[in-house]
User: Which sequence fits this backbone?
């Protein structure tokens, strides 16, 4: 029996450890792709959540905006001393008479509808701001992820070059031992290795900073671990990235332009409401009057506001018109800026794409050929060690340029998606 219990306890411990390892593996897996980071940000980002709550609050204002005001009830005790014949009393059945009044305010026809429509448009503007907040947040995540990918590739390349310099140091030592090279060649190889190790320290520090920033963007503690970036997104084909195509998508889906359009329509409703204020509002009421213990009289009441202050109303109408003109000007300015940013980023994406192709097809193969030729020449004594180092630096720079061009294209793509308002 005791042995069975021990085996069961051991099994429970093993299962717990396995589950813990699986959870830890899933946590560390976060960061291997930008899609996982974006999903985590949607679920955890406090900035995005706050904007969603504000949009929910704006949506809840629609019903109250179009509702009637609460009715009012009042009670009037008349002749509480019964013409001085009794002591004062507050009992409705013992005073001279009691007047009850129930009133309801009624705005002029159409005012409630305009207020409700204006609130609906303000709610749409709030949802546009939510989309804009997400677009900005997603762009920051995509950009930071691309920077982290570049650091990872730079570190990998630096380690490869460090291994290469270690091998070159051995070649230089063999040639020095044979009297075919100066001791300075060995020292220069060692200096290059020291410089690269120092660069790796700097890259590690920068990586930790970017990981902390990325964690903050997705709503996680800065000290949490992130997986190594495994891949970057594929750049869409040039045919789908034409300015005329993306311009139409930006005009229809850009969060800022959608928000400005809602603000214009809300301002139009406010202007209509200002014109409606030329007309009076009403109050209606019913009033039963109690004598003793019975209701003996009924009164009906109609109250009308008199819109005499026309100067005030004209000023309110002019204010509403000015606010509408301002909203239209803001939309025009925003449209111009959005299209200018779109054109700029498309030009930058095209330049990054061509640079990547040039580096991959020409510069990198040429640098590799130059390095192999320099290495063979140094081993045969035809070139000096300085020429070999220059060739090594050229091939490293070519590989860095290749990664940098790809990352630059990713950052331009992120900005274009922010401008368009949707993923491409």
Assistant:
């Amino acid at each position: 029996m005791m042995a069975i219990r021990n085996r069961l306890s051991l099994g429970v411990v093993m299962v717990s450890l396995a589950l813990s390892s699986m959870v830890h593996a899933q946590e560390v897996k976060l960061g291997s792709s930008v899609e996982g980071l974006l999903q985590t940000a949607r679920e955890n980002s406090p900035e995005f959540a706050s904007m969603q709550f504000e949009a929910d609050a704006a949506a809840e204002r629609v019903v109250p905006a179009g509702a009637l005001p609460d009715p009012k009830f009042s009670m009037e005790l008349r002749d509480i001393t019964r013409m001085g014949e009794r002591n004062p009393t507050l009992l409705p059945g013992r005073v001279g008479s009691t007047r009850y009044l129930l009133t309801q305010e009624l705005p002029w026809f159409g005012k409630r509808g305009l207020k409700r429509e204006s609130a609906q448009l303000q709610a749409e503007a709030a949802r546009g701001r939510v989309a804009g907040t997400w677009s900005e947040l997603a762009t920051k995540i995509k950009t930071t992820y691309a920077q982290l990918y570049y650091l990872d590739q730079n570190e990998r390349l630096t380690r490869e070059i460090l291994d290469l310099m270690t091998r070159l140091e051995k070649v230089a030592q063999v040639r020095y031992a044979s009297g075919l090279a100066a001791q300075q060649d060995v020292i220069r190889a060692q200096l290059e290795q020291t410089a690269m190790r120092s660069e790796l320290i700097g890259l590690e520090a920068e990586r930790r900073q970017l990981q902390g920033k990325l964690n903050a963007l997705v709503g996680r503690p800065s000290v949490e671990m992130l997986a190594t970036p495994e891949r970057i997104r594929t750049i869409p084909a040039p045919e789908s990235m034409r300015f005329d195509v993306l311009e139409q998508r930006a005009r229809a889906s850009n969060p800022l332009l959608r928000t400005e359009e809602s603000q214009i329509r809300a301002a139009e409703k406010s202007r209509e409401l200002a014109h409606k204020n030329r007309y009076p509002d009403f109050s209606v009421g019913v009033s039963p009057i109690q004598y003793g213990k019975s209701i003996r009289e009924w009164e009906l009441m109609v109250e009308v506001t008199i819109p005499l202050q026309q100067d005030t109303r004209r000023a309110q109408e002019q204010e509403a018109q000015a606010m509408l003109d301002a909203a239209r000007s803001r939309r025009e300015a925003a449209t111009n800026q959005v299209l200018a940013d779109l054109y700029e980023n498309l030009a930058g994406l095209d330049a990054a794409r061509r640079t990547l192709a040039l580096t991959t097809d020409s510069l990198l193969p040429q640098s590799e050929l130059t390095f192999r030729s320099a290495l063979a020449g140094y081993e045969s004594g035809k070139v000096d060690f300085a020429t070999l180092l220059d060739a090594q630096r050229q091939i490293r720079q070519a590989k860095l340029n290749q990664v940098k061009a790809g990352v630059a294209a990713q950052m331009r793509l992120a900005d274009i998606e922010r401008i368009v308002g949707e993923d491409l």
Confidence is low (pLDDT under 50) at residues 1-6, 8-27. Residues 169 and 187 are 8 Å apart (CA to CA). Strands lie at 72-78, 97-106, 282-291, 294-304. The two ends are 64 Å apart (CA to CA).
